[in-house]
Queue: 2 jobs
Job 1
Amino acid sequence: MENFCEQSSQPVKNSPPLPPPSPIRSKVDVHKKGLIINPSDRRGHSSASTATQDLCERLFNEGYRADVTINTDNGGVIYAHANIIGTASLVIKGMLKQTNRLGRWRSISIRGVPEDAVRAFIRFLYSSCYEKEDMEEFVTSLLVLSHVYVVPQLKRICEWHLEHGLLTTENVVDIFQLALLCDAPRLGIICHRMILKNFRDVSATEGWKVMKKSHPVLEKELLKSMIDEEKLYDAMEALVHICRDGCKTIGPHDKDFKLDQAPCKHAACKGLELLIRHFAGCKLRVPGGCVHCKRMWQLLELHSRLCADSDLCRVPLCRNFKERVKKQSKKDEIKWKILVKKILRAKGIGGSPFFSLASSISL
């Protein structure tokens, strides 16, 4: 079994986040065979030696002079030391203060998760260590426990392992709900992206079916976010269609419109036509001066980011926005990149010729 503990003095790329130091600290940096090295970016030396961690492990495993019993599901009991677990978790410290002492013993209960998950959790409070197998089997339970008992270091480690391999299309719906409950926004975003990217597979899972029954509002929100992306994609298609081919009575200045045109296949064309006509005649057309024009400016900029060839593009200002992008702040750039990814994901159009066959227009 692989044992993960804080040990290294050098950052390691793509490694789990730094666990907390063990309750007893040491300046000695001793490396033990079989321990996985985690990064340390706080100090130039290890916060705890393997000897200290071994001591904490033995104290937990042997329960020498333990003074707390932790009751788990199915009648399980774990022995612990109040000073250690109370120091590692202020929530547990508060629970211990409220319990009645029976001799030297105090008793608390941690229920709702498997006993082995509770054992792995308490062990982490002692030594900042965990087995790889325990993390793989009990990551959701450990995420919940780390949130409920406010152990942020363990919470970050659980999130890291989910982001780097433990998150699948089978469990992503359950993890997404946990992320919302456990105040893990980054994990929630990653789950949301996976759900939208693999919607067909995810919607066929048992987790989705259970969520549909127990949390119908959340299902509607997920479906709505997917529909919003589809609508934005359709608007991009309609914009290129109008500027390149023309539609009904609006299009390129050199377009010869016929009275017997076939019905337009783009559902967004009607609304976009009204928006373009407003944009062409609005006296407050400057960005921010009119909410309708602001929407049009945003569509034009979004198109320019999707367009593969601005030299051939017939959408207005496409090349201008391409140049403007180079001067934008990093914050704005990140915001637009996220939006572009959503559009590309909506129909899997990355590099679609539809966005590269566009040439200038006079409306």
Note: Strands lie at 3-6, 35-38, 68-71, 77-80, 106-109, 130-131.
Job 2
Amino acid sequence: MPMPSYFRFLSLLAFKIFCEEQVEVAILEVGLGGKFDATNAVEKPMVCGISSLGFDHMEILGNTLGAIAGEKAGIFKQGVPAFTAPQLDEPMQVLKEKASELNVPLQVVSPLDKSLHLGLDGEHQYINAALAVALCSTWLQKTGHSDISYLEQTRSLPETFLKGLSTAGLQGRAQIVADPSIEPERSGDLVFYLDGAHSPESMEVCAKWFSVAIKEEDDKNLSINSRKKSKQILLFNCMPVRDPALLLPPLMTTCSKHGVHFEKVLFVPNISVYNKVGNSALPTSSDHQVDLSWQLNLQTVWENLSHGERGLDSKNSNIRQTKDITDAYDKSTESSTVLASLPMAINLLREMVRKNESTRLQVLVAGSLHLVGDMLKTIKK
């Protein structure tokens, strides 16, 4: 047999490990989700869950939320209970129809009470947490580990549930990291706010989180009489299958509503290659040519938005040509810059901080989980 695709191989490997280790319960997260997802090899799961649906992987799942919901409902199994986060009317109707066809008892979860402390930041996490509670509670009941359903009693969750919700962590989502290379006495002067948001809906959520997080940080600094001026920087990249004209407007608009305006936007390519594994995924020193045409497209969309114009459309999506490293600094405007590499961008930010002791930089890194992963690896070196 030929080698399976990357995600199918990972799923196969996971099943092998779970069997060998004789795990008591496996929580499987789908790849893209849907009827052709590798995790559908499990024909009779205990329970299924669908989180908030948005415009993502449209080239495979469809161009409307209804079509996407139809694909996502492919994880429903005959008679197996399922839960969903609240959805917009169109996708919710599709989920209900698919559930009815398969005799699936489908329930919509309500967000947990905001008085509960969650380990993950953001209002949307109260919906995600409710979905987690519903899935765990159902599994415990169906396997005889518990007689109590916590679906309707979320105000009196057991201590183990509360501990799990309060200590949960997820790298690259609403994660705040102070730059470790800055001198200890100035450790808060360069802070990275990392969120791998890469859909219009998650970009809005990301922008809201960032706006609230930096306000809290500024209030804290104000209370200790810090006279430093905070400046916001956006470090951005997204994969070419995404449409920047859909991603950047909600980010810019939501930040603006909260009084946040980026001093500078930096566009960079990712470091790693994502169709390879191990050391072969890293570029070699001979890679002296860097194709920045996509980053230049992103910059054009941002500049158009900044000037109140419509983002890039399909007719001129390839208006920029390939640039090499030496040209990277040439494409710089007052509000944005294209750089040839992520390390170059980080060094630029560090230099800005070192040259100006009265400035504090708050850098939002968003648009791609790949970019965020590269960022975490690079600043730890």
Note: The longest helix spans residues 200-223.
